[in-house]
Design goal:
Elements (H helix, E strand, L loop, with lengths): L5 E6 L2 E6 L4 H7 L7 E5 L2 E2 L15 E6 L5
Parallel strand pairs: 1-5
Antiparallel strand pairs: 1-2, 3-4, 3-5
Length: 72
C-alpha cells in the first residue's frame, strides 16, 4: 500500500479492507451492484434506499447486502 489509510468492515460475514472515506455507493459501484437491486442492513438497521448516498463506511461497520431477484 502507498500510505493509504484503510478501514476494516464486515460485509456479508466476510472481513473487507477498504480505503478510508469509502462511501456505501462507491462500494456498490465498485462491485457493479445497482443500488435499486439490493436491500442493505447497516449496523443491524435496514437502510431506506434514499439514505445510501449519505453513508461513509467506518472501521467496524457491519453490512449485510441482499440482492433482490425478481421472477415468476
Amino acid at each position: 500500500m502507498s500510505g493509504e489509510t484503510t478501514i476494516k468492515c464486515s460485509i456479508n460475514g466476510m472481513d473487507v479492507t477498504l480505503p478510508e472515506g469509502t462511501s456505501l455507493l462507491d462500494f456498490l459501484e465498485k462491485k457493479n451492484t445497482p443500488k435499486g437491486a439490493v436491500v442493505i442492513e447497516y449496523n443491524k438497521e435496514v437502510l431506506p434506499r434514499g439514505e445510501y448516498d449519505g453513508i461513509i463506511l467506518s472501521e467496524g461497520d457491519v453490512l449485510e447486502i441482499l440482492q433482490v431477484i425478481g421472477g415468476g
